[in-house]
Specification:
about 55% helix, Rossmann fold, 6 helices
């Protein structure tokens, strides 16, 4: 399962509905994009040291998904599909969707715009 940034934040903040899904996941995968977004958020937090320590432990027990040439192909296909449908989504979420397709993993997210993307499954909470 891939964590979107809102899911990562919810796990860090111990939101029970998300933590329950998180602990029952076979795998936890963190897109490098999500790590960047999350670190931007915690850089502005008064609890940044606590969150950074927690994130370091999570990264050690998870798989970080990097963007590679194969990802760029999925990105282009997803973006084109959404453009044709007239349903653009934020750029970072395009990359997350591309990684979801590439690795055949669902995305734990509150963002419903992932629902309309073929080959991408969203786990809501």
């Amino acid at each position: 399962m891939i964590l979107d940034t809102n899911a990562l934040s919810a796990v860090a903040d111990n939101v029970s509905a998300v933590v329950q899904v998180f602990v029952n996941a076979d795998t936890v995968e963190l897109p490098v994009i999500v790590l960047g977004e999350y670190r931007f958020g915690i850089a502005q937090s008064l609890r940044r040291d606590t969150y950074e320590q927690w994130l370091t432990k999570l990264i050690a027990s998870s798989r970080v998904l990097d963007i590679n040439e194969h990802t760029t192909r999925n990105y282009a296909h997803v973006r084109l599909e959404l453009k044709k449908l007239g349903r653009p989504i934020p750029s970072n979420d395009l990359w997350i969707a591309a990684l979801s397709r590439q690795h055949s993993q669902p995305i734990l997210s509150r963002d419903r715009h992932f629902d309309g993307i073929s080959g991408v499954a969203r786990i809501p909470w």
